[in-house]
Specification:
α2 (37-80) packs antiparallel against α3 (85-93) and α4 packs parallel to α8 (168-199). This protein is mostly helical and 205 residues long. 84% of the residues lie in helices and 0% in strands.
Length: 205
């Protein structure tokens, strides 16, 4: 289990480094390349789509880790108390909501910025592409990190359920406190996307 937690930390640290290096590399390419508007638009779209993909992919990765952690801990409890199956499954589902937050933000981007892909007359700058990339960081980082830690709370709560099955409500409340910050990240990404959209002239769909 200790090695598992160490691997989680390595994934999170590596992800944060990638999030920092990718925009830097993009800006370096833009500075060394031509100032062609079409080329800048393509680079900006790459940045935006990478951010959107990471919002869903890494949020789902956090949920995968979290749900599996609670599932592994709950399997042992169910062998002794199968009547707690409903409460254990409820706790196992909680870390899965972070993946939904990331998916919703990605869908918001696809629906709102679709004209940039279909209309060749529209263009955005590399700076705007970086801003779009940055919009996905709050939900990506908070969901990736909160899901495993929420799972730890749920796994610890299973020990409470083993002693008294009536304590499920308290365990869910404690786990929900961790998810609050994933929700904050989701809201910030949502409002950031809307703020950047206001600076880009898009046709009404």
């Amino acid at each position: 289990m200790k090695n598992f937690f160490q691997s989680q930390a390595a994934v999170i640290i590596g992800t944060c480094l990638a999030l920092i290096l990718l925009p830097v590399m993009a800006f370096s390419q833009a500075a060394l390349g031509s100032a062609d508007a079409a080329g800048n638009t393509q680079l900006a779209l790459v940045l935006a789509f990478v951010g959107a993909a990471m919002a869903t992919g890494l949020s789902c990765l956090g949920s995968i880790i979290g749900v599996s952690m609670v599932g592994q801990a709950g399997a042992g409890l169910l062998t002794e108390k199968p009547d707690l199956a409903g409460k254990v499954i409820t706790l196992a589902v909680l870390p899965g909501s972070q993946g939904l937050y990331g998916m919703v933000v990605t869908l918001l981007f696809l629906f709102s910025y679709g004209p940039l892909m279909s209309d060749p007359k529209l263009s955005i700058t590399v700076l705007q592409g970086f801003l779009l990339f940055a919009c996905f960081m709050p939900v990506t980082i908070t969901c990736l990190t909160s899901a495993p830690y929420q799972a730890k709370v749920c796994a610890a709560g299973l020990h409470m359920l083993a002693k008294d099955g009536r304590l499920a409500g308290r365990v869910i409340t404690m786990a929900a406190l961790v998810e609050t910050y994933a929700l904050l990240g989701f809201l910030i990404s949502f409002f950031m996307l809307n703020a950047v959209k206001a600076s880009i002239v898009l046709p009404v769909l």
